[in-house]
Design goal:
Blueprint lengths: L3 E7 L5 E2 L15 E7 L31 E2 L4 H7 L3 E2 L3 E6 L5 H16 L2 E5 L4 H11 L6 E5 L3 H11 L3 E5 L16 H18 L3 E5 L11 H6 L2 E6 L6 E9 L7 E7 L2 E4 L3 H5 L10 E8 L2 E13 L7 E4 L3 H15 L6 E7 L11 H12 L9 E3 L2 E2 L5 E2 L4 H10 L4 E5 H4 L8 E5 L2 H8 L1
Parallel strand pairs: 6-10, 6-11, 7-8, 7-9, 9-10, 15-19, 17-18, 19-22, 22-23
Antiparallel strand pairs: 1-2, 1-3, 4-5, 11-12, 12-13, 13-14, 15-16, 16-18, 20-21
Helix pairs in contact: 8-9
This protein binds thymidine-5'-diphosphate and magnesium ion.
Magnesium ion binds next to helix 2.
Length: about 450
Amino acid sequence: MGKIKSCFVCQECGYESPKWAGKCPNCNSWNSMVEEFKSQQSYSAGSNLSKIKVNNMPQSIMNIKSIAYDRMNTGINELNRVLGGGIVKGSLTLISGDPGIGKSTLLLQAANNISKQYGKVLYISGEESEEQIKLRGDRLEALSKELFILSETNVEIIEKHIIDTEPIFVIIDSIQTLYNDTITSAPGSVSQVRESSNAIMRIGKSKDIPFFIVAHVTKQGALAGPKVLEHMVDTVLSFEGERTEEFRILRTIKNRFGTTSEIGVFEMRETGLQEVSNPSAVFLEDTEFNREGSIVIGIMEGTRPILVEVQALVSETKAVMPRRTAVGVDTSRLNLILAVLEKKLKIPFYNCDVYVNVVGGLNIEGTLGDLGIALALVSSIKSCETKLEKLLVVGEIGLTGEVRPVTFCDRIVNEGSKMGFKNFIVPSRNKDKINLNNVNIVGVSSLKEVINKVF
Ligand code: TYD
Ligand code: MG
């Protein structure tokens, strides 16, 4: 053994320093320097090879047995879907989201369902007392006798309880409340979170118990705690939505056992989170068609087409810097659409405040909604509604003012037709591939053409 040397390593970026610092000189994150001990003897290739015993050998991929993941049904279809078909045995899943969004509610509901089907579930909370959780359980009717509640924050004690209780599924709410006696820093600090997660991972993998871990987010919306947390776990879910609106979207950020493009939609009710299996119907529930500044667009979320209403309000202003406010739409995308409208259609927005909102709290990613957003803006600035009744718009806009084809256009149009839409504006190159009777499908190839057909 060589000499042991101590050094301080930033848990965020890996920067090493012989001295402790409150702020990492490399990445500027606070309180991330942790002392680590290293043996000074360096590894020199080939020196010890004769003493090393190996148990496993590299194998041809052809000879490795294929396995199907053993999954548990959470009893909540929308949750199963984002997980890729249920909870994989022995997996670690992180669920993050703003306070009050419904993480604890969702997990208590899932825990209840799982305990009824499979057996003992342990719900460990460092945030609420047993009585508080019981109150929520009453409200959610989550009162399975195999659902065990523990209010505890010490990782060692938690480990002991897990070994004694032998649950088939464990929930930790939340990782930021846990602490290790061996580390002096406060719960929630980088080193505490890292050590607690390591401990949980060790327990989970050694006993093949799946864990769900609640994690807080920072003000900027990133996961609080070290980035290693995200790398370590198998799946990262994010629970999003406006707290004031009843809809909640569960999104996969990382998934070792499925795709990351699926979303789950929920509605927060008095009796807990209800699944929304037909999101379009709910998002359009209160939509009055043919209103100034309002257009229904179709987008894809994973494998599902979803229809949502986009509203725009354009009002003249004398301000030097007019406002550009977008909720649910990327502001740079909005600016691009405005620039194309100004340049190609000669519609002036430079002296106007512009507000865009996606109804229902959904965030539109990608470009499928471009054309609809543009039409909502034009409708508002011209103060006129579209002349086509029950209109659904799909299409991407290019910088030269062209309407570009999009993938899955046919599936969105099919969904629209099922939902009772009668008129469709789609990119002309997509139109040929759509086979639908009884509806009016208009193919367009430029913005100019659309404006003439719609207003
Ligand atoms: P909660 O699950 O505690 O959020 P998180 O764990 O993400 O912080 O949910 C908090 C909100 O949900 C709370 O403000 C009340 C609301 N709620 C309902 O509307 N109905 C319900 O049945 C429950 C349990 C909560
Ligand atoms: Mg909570």
